[in-house]
Amino acid sequence: MITAAQQSDWLLHHLSQSAGNLPGRGLAWLENLRREAARSVAQLPVLNRKQESWRYTSIDSLLQQRFITAGADIGGLENLDISRWMLPGLDAYRLVLVNGRCLPSPASSADLPEGVVLGSLRTALATDPDRLSAWFVRNSGRSDNLFTALNSALINDGALLHVGTDVVLDKPIEILHLHLGHERPLLVQPRNLLVLEPGSGVTLVERAIGADSSAAFHNHLTEIYLSAGASLDHYRLQDENQRSHHLCTLFLSQQEQSRYRGTHLSFGGVWARTDCHALLQQPGGECEINGLYTVGDEQLKDIHLRVHHAAPRCTSRERFKGILHGEGRAVFDGHIIVDRGAQGSDAQLRNDNLMLTRSAEVDTKPQLEIYADDVKCSHGTTVGEVDPAQLFYLRSRGIDKAQALSMLSLGFAAEISNGIRLNALRSYLAQRLARKLGGQTDASGMDSGNV
Amino acid sequence: MNATENRVTKLVQKEYEHGFTTELETDTLPPGLSEETIRQISARKNEPEWLLEARLKAYRHWLNMSDPEWAHVKHPPIDYQAISYYSAPKKRGKGPKSLDEVDPALIAAYHKLGIPLQEQKALAGVAVDAVFDSVSIATTFREPLAKAGVIFCSFSEAVQDHPDLVRSYFGSVVPYTDNYYACLNAAVFSDGTFVYIPKGVRCPMELSTYFRINEANTGQFERTLIVAEAGSYVSYLEGCTAPKRDDNQLHAAVVELVALADARIKYSTVQNWYPGDAEGRGGIYNFVTKRGDCRGDRSHISWTQVETGSAITWKYPSCILRGDGARGEFYSVAVTRGSQQADTGTKMIHMGRNTKSTIVSKGISAGLGQNTYRGLVRMTPKAENARNHTQCDSLLIGDKCGAHTFPYIEVKNPSAKVEHEATTSRIGDDQLFYCRQRGLSEENAVSMIVNGFCKEVFRELPMEFAVEAQKLLDLTLEGAVG
Hints:
The complex is a heterodimer. By secondary structure, chain A is an alpha/beta fold. Chain A is built from 9 helices and 21 strands. Chain B has helices spanning 2-13, 35-44, 49-63, 104-112, 117-123, 142-148, 155-161, 163-169, 180-188, 429-436, 442-458, 463-477, and strands at 26-28, 87-89, 127-132, 135-139, 151-154, 191-197, 207-212, 222-228, 233-241, 249-251, 254-259, 264-272, 284-294, 300-307, 312-315, 318-321, 327-336, 341-344, 347-350, 356-366, 370-379, 387-397, 402-411, 417-426.
C-alpha cells in the first residue's frame, strides 16, 4: 500500500522536471492556480484502499514508474499524417492533440461557423487570456487528489472549445488524443475546456488512442460548462495500447434546461479510469451518461460517477454495461446525491456486468445519497454470466460457441451502442467489439456449463 | 405540507414513552478504562485465566486502533474514560435462587416495561433471560430447556459452567481484531447470553432476552454467543428499551452465531432504545457487531431486525456462508425520526457452492432523520452458482430527512448471480388520494401504506414480535406523516 511519502515524492518528481517552459507566465490567475495545486501536495489524501473512491484501485504500480512530461516540444509533428487515425466515414471538424499538445489546426476546422472557437488552450492563453480566466477561476479548489493536482500544476495545453450563443453546429467535432513513441513512458496531460453558451448545441467525439506501442500515462482533465439551454452530445472513446494508463477526470456543470448526453466507451489500457463529476446547478437540467467497457486480461476498468442534483427538477440517467472477457477487473462506483431542496429530482443509476471468464472480477457500488423527499431515485446492478439457455438455443442452431458468446455479448452491449447517433461511430464500435470479443473469448472458461 | 410540518414538530416533541429510571442500589466501577479496570471486571466475575488473557489481549490491540469514520453518521468524539465499564445490581447474600428473591424494584421495572417475567412464563411460553444493565439476574424456563439439552444462560454463568464450550467458540466468528467497537467489547464485555442447541434438537420454545440500560454513564457491552449443532433449530428474540438519560450512552455489543450443518438460527431484534431529545442529545449510541457463521453444509441463518430507537445505530448483521448450500437472510426495517441517524445493513460473504442470500431492507426517514443502508455482497472464486438478491427501499417523510444507499458488490465467480435493486421515494400522492377518497383519514392511510411497505420484513418476525413491531412502528411514526 502506498504511503504519503511515496505519493508526494512521485508528484514532486514530475512537478520539478517540468517546472519551466509552461505557457502563460505572468498571468496571475494561472500562476495562482498552478501554485495552489502544487502547494496542496502535503494535504492531498493518500490514494490507497482506505480512500473510499480508490478502495478497489491500486495505483502502486503506477507510482513506481517515473514518466517524462511530454509536450515541451512538438517540433517535427506538424507534418504528421493523422488521417489514418481519424474516425472513418465521419465528416467532422477536427482537432488533433499529440502527446497533450495541439497540432496546428487541420484544414477541416478552418470553415467553422462564426461564434465557434476550436483550438489550442496554449494559443488562447497567449491571445485571449482574459476570457479564459473567467472560466478557469470557477474551478478553484478542485485539485483534490494527486492526479488533478498534477494536471492543474502543469497546465500547458489542451483542447479549447467555445460555442457562442444559439450556435448549433451542423457537423460533429472530433478531438483526437494521440500519444507517440518515446523510449521512456510519457506523461500526457491535456487540460480541456468546453464552454457552450446559452442555446448552443454540439456533437463532440473525443478519442484517446495510442498511435504506436509506446507506454504513456494519460492524465486528462476536462471541464465542461453548459449554459442555459445548451446541449452537448459527447462521445468519448478510450482505446490505448495495453502498456498505457488512462485517467480522465471530467467536471461537468450544467445550468438551467441544459442537456448533457455522454457516451463513454472504454476498451484499452492496462488501467483506464473515468472520474466524472456532474453538477446540476440550475433547475431543469438533464444529464445522461451511458457507458460501455470491456475488460480483458490484466486490465482494470475503473468508472466513477458522481451526479449531484443541487437544484430542483433535474433528471439524470446513468447506465453502464461491462463485458469481462479476460482475467481483469471492473470497478464501477456510481453516486447520486440529491441536495435538500432539490425537489422533483429524478435519477436512475444502472450497472450491468457480463462475466465471460472465470478469473474476472467485478466490484460495483451504486450509491444514492438523498436529502429531499419529493424524488424518484433508483439504482440497480447485476452481475452474471451468459444465460445457458440462450447459449444452448444458438448452439442448437449450429452456431459455434465462440461465435454464440460473441453474439450474445454484442446483444448485451446493444442497449448502449444503439444509443449512438453517429453512424460512423456506431459501425466502428461494432467492428471494434467483434474483434475484441471474437478473438479473446475464453472458451475453456465456460466449460463448467452444460454446453 | 403545513399539516405535515406541524405533525413532525409534534412528533419530535413527543416524550420517550419508556423514559423512567429505576432507583436501585448498584455495584458500579468508577468511570475509566485501563488494564486494572479489565482485571477488576474479570475478578468480579470470577473468570478463568484464559478469558482474562483474551480480554487484555483485546484491550492492548484496541489501544492501537482508532475510531472508524467511514459511517454516514455524525457524533461528538466519545470519551472512553468517562464511561463506567461495570454495573451490577447488588446481590443479597449469594444471589437470587428464584424470581421471589429478585429485588422487587427490578421486577417492578420490568412490569413498567411490559415484560412481566411470570406472566410471560405462563402466557407466551417464552423463556426470558433478562439483562438488567450488565448482569443477568433472572432466568426462567431453565428446566424445560435443560430437558431438551438446550443451554440457555447468561454468558458469565456459561463461563463458569461450560468453560470448554465457551472457549472453543468465543471470538471465533467476531475476532477481537475485527473492528474498533468489537475489540472494545472483547476487552470489557460485561455479560450477555449463551445459547447452545445440541445436535438434532429443535429448541422447544422461542428464546428471548430483554436488554435494559439503566445506570447512567454505563456502557452496555453485551456478548451473545449462540451455537447450533448439526441439524438443530433455534429462534432467538432480542428486544430492548432504555430509560431517559442526558448523557450519551454507548452500547457496543457483539453477537456471534455459529450454525453447523443443516442447523438453522433465526435471530430477531426489535430495538427501541432512547433516541435522544429533539436535538438528538442523550440518545443511545448503538454500535453493534453481529455476525453469523454458516459453517456446515445447508446451514441457514436469518437476521430480522426492526430498528426504531437509538440516537445512532451502527449495525451490520452479517452472514458468512461457508458451507455448500448455506443460506443467509437479512430482513430489516429501520426508522429514523427527530435527529436519529442509522447506518445499517448487512454483509453476505459467499464462500460455498450453491449458497444463497436474500437481503430486504426498508428504510423510513422522517423529521431530520438520516437513514443509510450499507451492505456488502461478496462472491468468492469458490462460490459456484451462488445467488444473491438485494432489495433496498427507502421512504422519505418530510423534506429535511435523508435516505442513502451504499451497496458494495464484489463478484469473483462468473456463475454467481447478483441482483441489486434500490428505490427511494416518498409516499405517492396518488396512493394517498386513493385511500383518502375511500374515506380513510390521512394518518390511517399513511399508516396503512407504511405497514404495507414493511410487510415483507414483518412477516419474517415471530408472531409476538410482529405484533409488537407493528405497534412500535405506528407509535414511532404517529403524527410524523402526511
